Structure formats: C-alpha cells, structure tokens
Amino acid sequence: MSGSIASYDQLVRQVEALKKENSHLRRELEDNSNHLSKLENETSDMKEVLKHLQGKLEQEARVMVSSGQTEVLDQLKALQMDITSLYNLKFAPEVMSTGRGTEESPPGPASHRDGPGELGRATFRMLEELDRER
C-alpha cells in the first residue's frame, strides 16, 4: 500500500511540474506571438516606405533617361546591387535556419541588363517572399 501512495505522490509531483512547464511555454508562446505581430507591423510599414521610395526612384530614373543622364543610373544600379547583396548576406542564414533549402531562398540580385525598375521590383519580391515565409 505504501508503494502505491509513493507512486501516487510521484505522479502528483510530475503533474505539478508539467503544469509549471505548460504555463511557462504558454507565456513564451504569447511573448513570441506578440513579438511576431510587432515584426509584421514593422515589415508592413517598411514595405509601404519601400513602395513609395521605389515609385520616386522610377520616376526620377525616367527623367534621367529622357535627359540622357545614364551615368547616374548606372551608379544607382550598382548601389541597388550592393544593397541587395548585403540584404541577402544578412537574411540568408535566417532563411536557411528555418529548415528550408536553397531552392526556396530568395532570388539573387537582378542582373545589370535589367532597368532600374526591375532592380527595385526584385528587391520588393524578395521582401514579399520573406514575409510569406514568416
């Protein structure tokens, strides 16, 4: 009889320990959910800013092309390539750590033959892909 009491007490202790762990995990899940919501809001805000900036850049690029200032456009393309490369370097390990292979990683930077609008659209597509993966 004392063996069954001891096993009952042991079960009660295990249940209490599991309840504590469950409570801890629920708090952690709630914290993570709140953090994710905050990140989603920030991402959404950044995407809106990027859309606005991309529109302005495309408009300025059209003006530059029409006035023959292709030298500045080449510099902008190079800058966009650098930004995209840095973005890929910063976020590629995070994409890989989610268990996805390289076949699902964001596309690389656009080639130099693409126009300035294509470079911005490629960057925007990468951000959208990251948002969908999250």
UniProtKB/TrEMBL annotation:
GO terms for molecular function: beta-catenin binding; gamma-catenin binding; microtubule binding. One of its GO terms (biological process) is pattern specification process. Residues 6-57 form the Adenomatous polyposis coli N-terminal dimerisation domain. GO terms for cellular component: beta-catenin destruction complex; catenin complex; cytoplasmic microtubule. It comes from the Eukaryota. Gene3D superfamilies: 1.20.5.10. Residues 24-43, 97-121 are annotated as: Disordered. It holds the Pfam family APC_N_CC. SUPFAM superfamilies: N-terminal coiled coil domain from apc (SSF58050). This is APCL protein. It comes from Certhia familiaris (Eurasian treecreeper). The gene is Apc2_1.
